[in-house]
From TrEMBL:
Family, similarity comment: Belongs to the short-chain dehydrogenases/reductases (SDR) family.
Enzyme Commission (EC) number: 1.1.1.100
Gene3D superfamilies linked to this entry: NAD(P)-binding Rossmann-like Domain (3.40.50.720)
The name this protein goes by in its record: 3-oxoacyl-[acyl-carrier protein] reductase
Lineage: Bacteria, Pseudomonadati, Pseudomonadota, Alphaproteobacteria, Hyphomicrobiales
SUPFAM superfamilies, per database record: NAD(P)-binding Rossmann-fold domains
GO MF annotation: an example: 3-oxoacyl-[acyl-carrier-protein] reductase (NADPH) activity
InterPro entries (UniProt xref): NAD(P)-bd_dom_sf, SDR, SDR_fam
Keywords: Oxidoreductase
Amino acid sequence: MDLGLTGKRALVLASSRGLGAGIAKALADEGAHVLICGRSVDKLKANADAINAAGKGKADYVEADLADAHFVDAMLHAIHDKLGGIDILVNNTGGPTPGTAEEMDAEKLFNFFQSMVVRVITLTTAVLPLMKTQGFGRILTVASSGVIEPIPNLALSNTLRGALVGWNKTLSSEVASYGVTANLILPGRIHTDRIEELDAANAKRQGKSVEDVRTASLKTIPAGRLGKVEEFAATAAFLCSEPASYITGTMLRVDGGGAKSL
């Protein structure tokens, strides 16, 4: 299938590693020009070099931190300077610290709300006029399966990513007639460094070994294994594609059947 992504310009947030890096590679493999960003210049450069060496799409990178108050302005300048416009925005953010609902304090809640919600929404709003004018746009926001089935000990993530659900659905109906789609993609347990960190945190909280925690978690996944970044990224690339033009306002799980809800 031709995804129609050749020459499309894509900004992928938080793409120095993990799911963001995987999505950037998948888009570039389909011929897109991707702009990756994150806090680790060394990882960004390595990712961009690998994409450019593959000779399919093209990659540029810019150092940026979602926690920075000037993040949105920096991204808008980078879009202009590096891409010359934008067709695809992948809103990906790092996950907040694990913890219970009772452990959430006002300062922590406010800080993560700024980086995981406010800047995602503000940046999306800023790029929409161009997408609407050109009659094509893809807004894809990486959330979590926790928005449909809250994940124990991830109260901050469940709360903040949940806020993006209502926003995305509202936005999708407002921009659909302009050829712009807005969707959420919900990863379950995909094998990344983040999963390793969460397993370690859960092992400490439960007084168990990491291996015991991991074995128990695999038993809850009908597929019987962790997902691969490449599998998740391929799904993301499709949602950003031309053939996915009639898919908007939805949430797509990539979780091996792990979520128990309908």
